[in-house]
Amino acid sequence: MEPRQLTALIVEDDMVIRMIHRNMLKSLGVKNEAVENGKEAVEIHRSGQCFDLILMDRDMPVMNGIE
């Protein structure tokens, strides 16, 4: 039986930082998705998607990581 692939959600408004995180996680074998703000992260969660890890910026437009 193969081990389950880890998944991550990246919540970051800065495109460069988002890309760095995506590439780093991909190189580690972690399947990942990225969104630009907390509101988009909440929408993904409400759609039923689950993640093993969430990397979230604290200071973003629309809805930040604290809200």
Automatic annotation (TrEMBL):
Ranges of residues in domain Response regulatory: 7-67
Modified residues annotated as 4-aspartylphosphate in this record: 57
Any one biological process term the GO annotation gives: phosphorelay signal transduction system
Keywords: Phosphoprotein
Protein name: Two-component response regulator ORR42
Species, as recorded: Mucuna pruriens
Annotated gene: RR42
